[in-house]
Amino acid sequence: MANFSKSNVPQFSVEVYQNAFLPEGGREVNAIVTVTSTGGGTTGGIPLAGSGPAYRTGPGAAVVLMVDCSGSMDYPPTKMRNARDATAAAIDTLREGTLFAVVAGTHVAQEVYPGGGRLAVADAHTKALAKDALRGLSAGGGTAIGTWLRLADRLLGPADAGIRHGVLLTDGRNEHEAPEDLRAALESCAGRFTCDARGVGTDWEVKEVTGIASALLGTADIVADPSGLADDFTRMMENVMGKEVADVALRLWTPVGVEIRFVKQVAPSVADLTGRRTEAGPRAGDYPTGSWGDESRDYHVCVRVPQAGIGQEMLAARVSLILPDPSGAGTPQTLSQGLVRAVWTDDMAASTSINPQVAHYTGQAELAQVIQQGLEARKSGDFDGATAKLGRAVQLASASGNQDTARLLSKVVDVVDAATGTVRLKAKVAEADEMTLETRSTKTVRVKK
User: Rounded to whole angstroms, how far apart are CA atoms 36 and 11?
Assistant: First the structure.
């Protein structure tokens, strides 16, 4: 493990867990990379101003709250009221000096506060004005989420802030723009700000909301009962206020002949980063991780190495945490790094042993996949396929101690034997329970100590 730090900024460390031993002819190397950031958000919220050229300067954060105001938000009328209250709660949670704006989203996007294409600076006065402006929100019109995101990008783009973040609330499907328009908006906004997305009620599309959060490196969740929105928004904004460093990249350097099979975040949730690589010099590529506070995340790196003889060893990959110079002109800062190794041996016990972290997260990634496949099979009427997939999910959740997912699965299937994955599909399943399982299917648990 290597650890590099600067004064007055969070410290990052990288730890690599793997079984480096391969049998003769073995070529696949797997490693779990644990990245930990300490000394940031929960230790006082140290602003990044003056921290050096590799850190963005200015206020700690800029936030745009995007509130669905389409016609469906009036059914029932309490939904719109709960959305206003939740947005007000989020505004109350903003740290003094945070830049912020509120956007009303329908088939168009409109600035609610402060207006004029700018952001307000959070203090007691501006928070009161913003909450007063929320009272004027009413439901009417359609849903075109891409327009909301593009307006958020225009507002956040010029902000002199370390963290740029969006919060998006919707209760319906994105019916008033083409799917390619939303995809184009997400591609345009990716890397420019992060975004948490929430679906309220049960009339929205899970894949749309989770797709937005995935593309913009944020979180996605369901708030089936609108009365829970205020608590959810408060927790979400507290998390945003704890972020201290933005645009951290996981850089993978590999020697000649080494092929990268995949790079995935595996905790606290599963997210495939393989296709998001940007080249960073000879045999090196960067994978985005978003913004960080005091937290720890795990990544699964899998590479394919050239064949080698017994007794030989090689560096299979070097993993570094990189913070780019925001101007693009300076040298990126290496926050921490670790090494992935390959050693060929004829010791059968050593070469066939699976590292516990690798085994655990391979199972967690499979758990997310079989839940999604099982729910798709159930929707399409393939009940045998659904039973098999969701049974495997119950087995994996039980074996790994993922109690939250096991509890959600028990609302969709009757568990006969968790250890063997023997289940029966429930005849009737509440739509909110099915959507909650699908939305949260990628959430994982850490390795048991």
Answer: 8
197-219: pLDDT as tens digits: 999 999 999 999 999 999 999 99
Q: What is the DSSP string of 59-114?
A: SSEEEEEEEE-SGGGGSSTHHHHHHHHHHHHHHHHSPTT-EEEEEEESSSEEEEES
Alpha-carbon 107 to chain mean position: 26
Distance CA 84, CA 233 (A): 11
Asked if the model's pLDDT at residue 73 lies above 80, the reply is yes
Three-class secondary structure of residue 22 per DSSP: strand
Alpha-carbon gap, residue 216 to 308, rounded angstroms: 40
CA 91 to chain centre: 22
323 with 330: CB under 8 angstroms? no
Cα–Cα distance for residue pair 249/245, rounded to 1 Å? 11
At residue 40, φ and ψ (nearest 5 deg) are -110, -115
Return the pLDDT at 326: 64
Pairwise CA distance, residues 160 & 242, whole Å = 18
Coil/strand/helix, residue 220: strand
63: β partners? 100, 165
Structure tokens, 324 = 């780019």
- For 61-72, letters b (16+ CB in 10 Å) and e give bbbbbbbbbbeb
- In the predicted structure, residue 296 carries a pLDDT above the cut 70: yes
Burial of 96 (0-12, 13-18, 19+ CB in 10 A): exposed
Angle, vertex CA 431, rays to CA 430 and CA 432, nearest 5: 90
CB 334: neighbour CB atoms within 10 A? 15
Question: In the prediction, which pLDDT does 324 show?
Answer: 80
pLDDT in tens, 133-143: 999 999 999 99
Other beta carbons within 10 angstroms of residue 312's beta carbon come to 12
| 399-411 residue pLDDT tens | 999 999 999 999 9
Average pLDDT over residues 125-148: 97
Q: 288 forms bridges with which residues in the sheet?
A: 249
pTM for the predicted model, two decimal places = 0.92
Alpha-carbon distances, residue 258 vs 119, 209, 253, 254 (angstroms): 47, 36, 10, 6
Is residue 4 a contact partner of residue 12, using CB atoms and an 8 Å limit? yes
